[in-house]
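This section describes the prediction task in plain terms. A model, or a person checking by hand, is given the sequence of a single protein chain and must write out its three-dimensional structure as a string of tokens. No templates, partner chains or ligands are provided. The sample shown here is typical of the held-out split.
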Amino acid sequence: MYKRQVLSEVLCAKIKKVKLLITDVDGVLTDGGIILDDVGMEYKRFQVKDGQIIPFLKKYGFTVGAVTGRDVAVVRQRCEQMNLDFHYHGVRNKLDLIVQVIKDFNLSLDQCAYIGDDIIDLDVLSKVGFSAAPKDALPYVCSRVDFVCTLEGGKGAFREVADTLLEVQGKLSAALHSLDIA
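The expected answer:
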């Protein structure tokens, strides 16, 4: 799926603090495309592998959520299917909301990881403990994050970040062993 990146000690130290993973939706969980039919119904394509890791994140102590600038029924449905701990839609000021979410979970900004791909995500990306962007995020976003995925949005970028968090925290092998596949 992807080749694991070599991470610096500084980056690993940041990742080891993470307990909360928040993601944007359009451009991270999807490829950012919007398909509209003749009656205005909106369709999106999600990568199933992104959702498959969420039970393992939760099992190993992570809280997982989504904050998106758009409010679309299909995204709400997918967030419910993925059994996220929370999801907020139609959010224009993501930073204020995320700061409140962090407080609600009794955490700090350095314990939060965020994955974003566009200008609306920059405030959050600059404040959290660990920031990531899909490979195809805008260049000025990629230049401001801790980790640029080898995969694109909607093609496993979320999964790459999730696996990286689990691996650096020493929990990925336990997850694999729990399935008797390691």
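For orientation: The longest helix spans residues 157-168.
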